[in-house]
Specification:
The protein is of the alpha/beta class. It folds into two domains: 1-124, Protein of unknown function UPF0759 (TIM Barrel); 130-204, no CATH class. The chain is built from eight helices and eight strands, in the order βααβααβαβαβββαβα. A five-stranded parallel β-sheet has the order 1-2-3-4-5. A three-stranded parallel β-sheet has the order 6-7-8. Helix 7 links the parallel strand 7 (142-147) and strand 8 (177-182). Helix 2 (16-25) packs parallel to helix 4 (50-64) and helix 7 (160-172) packs across helix 8.
Length: 204
């Protein structure tokens, strides 16, 4: 595989030293994506935390350098759509980075959100998550897909047909770069599904 999503950064604010260690372990051309700390997305919910956001960006820039792929803002299910919250999202991100926003509330799957994110070059995270729309959404030249396990979150392994359907959708996407992460890691599903997806997409 040629990318890895850092989930540990969600639970604990990373240090430059830790990220530099990740950098050294990865081969040339490898990219890391990093999840924004929960103090920003879940506790402060993007409000009054610009200093923390700026610090996170700076640590990523210094620690991961050219091996930084995307910055993922995963927002909680209780964070439903309002125009004010959409503005919070827009104001939170640093446009110098490849920013991705994952919503866990279906109220965000509306054209107004897609249009505003596209206008600001922010990637809407496509997901496969219980009770959330599973369509591929494109709002930038980058496609970001997280498959969490469905119907049983983190446990369910995707069928070969489901993987083939996603591979076909990715082939038909307009994006020039795609990041795909499997989060059904409670068992062996993530490794099996990721390998199957890789084989399908590298035969294009």
């Amino acid at each position: 595989f040629n990318t890895y999503e850092l989930n540990s950064t969600f639970y604990k604010f990373p240090t430059v030293r830790i990220l530099q260690n990740w950098y050294k372990k990865a081969p040339e051309g490898f990219l890391y994506s990093a999840k924004v700390p929960k103090i920003i997305t879940h506790i402060k919910r993007l409000a009054d935390c610009q200093d923390e956001i700026n610090e996170f960006y700076n640590v990523l820039r210094e620690g991961l350098a050219d091996k930084l792929g995307c910055v993922l803002f995963q927002l909680p299910p209780s964070f439903s759509y309002t125009t004010e919250r959409l503005e919070l999202v827009i104001n939170a991100v640093n446009p110098e980075f490849s920013n991705v926003v994952e919503f866990r509330n279906e109220s965000w799957w509306i054209p107004e959100v897609f249009e505003v994110l596209a206008a600001n070059n922010i990637t809407f995270c496509s997901v496969n998550y219980p009770k959330i729309p599973t369509e591929i959404v494109e709002t930038s030249t980058l496609l970001y897909l997280r498959l969490h396990g469905n119907p049983r979150l983190f446990y369910s392994e995707y069928s070969s047909q489901e993987i083939k359907d996603y591979a076909e959708a990715i082939r038909n996407a307009k994006a020039n770069k795609c990041f795909i992460y499997f989060n059904n890691t409670a068992d062996t599903g993530a490794i099996i599904n990721a390998q199957e997806m890789k084989e399908l997409l590298t035969t294009i």
